[in-house]
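Kindly review this protein for my students:
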Amino acid sequence: MRLLIGGLGIVALLVGIVGLIAPVSVSAEGKVVGCGSVIAPDLSAARANDDAGAANTPVPGGLVNDANFTRLCDMDLEDRRLWTITSGALGALIIAAAVAHGITSRRAGSTR
């Protein structure tokens, strides 16, 4: 049972680490824009699309078409940061608890 719990902790830790380094991208108005990763955010492409975009352009129906790619990237990076750090920390905690339980159970078994 301890190995199963330790294995789940390792998986959670790895998911957190991979999520931190995996690239993030956003899409709006048929465009996909890269945002970098949580560890190394790169908002230059998002800012370039915001500057070059047709902000506040009237469209049929009187609506304004204004996708803020920089803000979308910020939100997606923050979401990714929240769940990856939580997953990694939980995984590390589970691994530490499994190791500590293994050490204490070995000590208790050797004193008998």
Observations:
- Residues 69-110 form the longest helix (42 residues).
- The chain has one domain: 2-110.
